[in-house]
Amino acid sequence: MPTLTTAVIGYLLEPFLPDLPESLLASLSAYLDLLLKWNARTNLTAIRTPEEIVKRHFGESLFAGLHLPESATLLDYGTGAGFPGLPIALMHPEVRVTLAESQNKKVSFLREAVRSLGVSIDVWPKRVEEMPSDLRFDCVTLRAVDDMEAALRGASLRSRSKIVLLTSQGAAQQIEISGFQEEETIHVPESSDRIVTIFART
Ligand SMILES: C[S@@+](CC[C@H](N)C(=O)[O-])C[C@H]1O[C@@H](n2cnc3c(N)ncnc32)[C@H](O)[C@@H]1O
């Protein structure tokens, strides 16, 4: 039995994205179970309850996916356990998604998730800085990457067109990305301070 039924996951995600298809809910349910199983023995995410994982990780990632600029390729910079890149890839199978993560245990989890979900996603198992210097993506997403200033500089070198940043209102106040301008900021449902900000290359 899955930890949460697709009906419960759909209900929890309703404020972020109503009427999700059953096939997407089934993939999210399988992803949740795998994440809970791995999180019991390795620390992949500090958010531990299934309901909070669905709302805070899946909900915010899918909400960013709802507002994703048109892109053929996407890099999720410092994806951790796959956020926001993996839910976005499930929602947008037409986008070629690369999940970049430098920590081995998280890379092992991501590979297992990609294999068991049967999705076509690339995993870059090193630091983004180690990618071939000419590799670019239409869109780069970032959420909760440790050194945000350095990460945004790195993202600006990798993005051909857009950067989508998932952050808090307070943290966003000081953010400037050389060569990019803020295009749109959208408030994340069910939160007083979480936002999705889209930057476009000038
Ligand atoms: C706090 S976690 C957040 C993960 C995820 N984005 C989320 O929102 O749950 C940040 C992750 O970024 C990874 N990371 C930081 N800098 C990186 C870099 N330059 N290249 C690849 N991964 C990086 C770290 O290993 C860590 O797993």
How would you characterize this protein structure?
By secondary structure, this protein is of the alpha/beta class. The protein has one domain: 3-Layer(aba) Sandwich (Rossmann fold). The protein is 39% helix and 23% strand. It has a 7-stranded mixed beta sheet with strand order 3-2-1-4-5-7-6. Helix 3 packs across helix 4. S-adenosylmethionine is lined by residues 78-80, 83, 100-103, 106, 127-129, 143-146, 151. Belongs to the methyltransferase superfamily. RNA methyltransferase RsmG family. It comes from Granulicella sibirica. Specifically methylates the N7 position of a guanine in 16S rRNA. Pfam families: GidB. Its main location: cytoplasm.
Features:
single chain; 202 residues; alpha/beta; Rossmann fold; 7-stranded mixed sheet; 7 strands; binds S-adenosylmethionine; rRNA (guanine-N7-)-methyltransferase activity; SAM-dependent_MTases_sf; Ribosomal RNA small subunit methyltransferase G; EC 2.1.1.-
Number of helices: 7
Give the termini distance in whole angstroms: 50 Å
Low-confidence stretches: none
Secondary-structure element order, N to C: HHHEHEHEEHEHEE
Note the beta-strand portion.
15-25%
Give me the count of strands.
Answer: 7
Overall pLDDT confidence: 96
Q: What portion of residues is helical?
A: 25-40%
Q: Which second-level CATH architecture applies? A: 3-Layer(aba) Sandwich
User: Could you tell me which ligands this complex binds, including any ions or cofactors?
Assistant: S-adenosylmethionine
Lateral strand order in the biggest sheet: 3-2-1-4-5-7-6
